[in-house]
Amino acid sequence: MYHNDTIFVLLLITDANIKILSIWAIQNQNKLYINAVKICFMIDIERVIKVVDWLIFEKIVKSRKDLALKMGYTESSMSQILNQKVPLSERFIKKLSILDDRINIDWVMGGDGDMLQESLIKETQVFYGGEDFEEPTYVPLLPISAQGGSLNDFVVSVKDSDCERVISPIRGADFAMTVAGDSMAPEYPSGSQILIKKINERAFIDWGKVYVLDTCNGSVIKRIFPADDKDPGKVKCVSINPDYPPFEVSFEDIFSVYRVLLSMSIK
């Protein structure tokens, strides 16, 4: 807790006179005022750091180094400011605030209102540190690969809680799994992760789209088409890589069908 006199001094300090008080406190070696001024700077830097983190989260800047370049500072100068080695300036805060018109400069300067301007908050789908912040979605990463073991064996015997979980950039996915082999390259390269959702294949299949079929011989990722002989009890599986010939699978040998929603790979 702060000393009562310090709290009283804080009430006297405003953004308009904090610089004057800082000089006076240092010249007169007044520890009470020095302590109060330091507290004000600490509060200011916390708000600034929150804005910096939000700018990075929103991908307006890539990093603190990128932020420094966009604001006309060196990386070293930015580090000194954010680590409180040098005091904040009104010029710095103004340059920070104009990076995005949603930032409320009154909040950054003095804590008035909210970090983002109310009239623009609704335009932001996700923002850092507010009530509308959306927690990332995680899905279980199956310890088998598409073009490998059976999903049915996994779903029956292993709990979701036993799996590694990965962040899903989209909602609605049931599982993530790793692609093995190059039959679906280049769109689904070996080692990439796919997000999948179980569907009712008896109700509807969107022909030509990519699915994971969980069959008695393991799981396969393929584009699905009607069988050549139009037999409703079979589907035709086609690879993207032309080096792999198509083949047909009977629904009797399919445990379940999963629609591929998204592929994630490191380029």
TrEMBL record:
One Pfam family of this chain: Peptidase_S24
Entry-linked InterPro entries: Cro/C1-type_HTH (IPR001387), LexA-like (IPR039418), LexA/Signal_pep-like_sf (IPR036286), Peptidase_S24_S26A/B/C (IPR015927)
Residue ranges crossing the lipid bilayer per the database entry: 6-26
GO MF annotation, one: DNA binding
UniProt keyword annotations, A-Z: DNA-binding, Membrane, Transcription, Transcription regulation, Transmembrane, Transmembrane helix
Cross-referenced SUPFAM superfamilies: LexA/Signal peptidase (SSF51306)
Domain Peptidase S24/S26A/S26B/S26C: 170-252
Name of the protein described by the UniProt record: Peptidase S24/S26A/S26B/S26C domain-containing protein
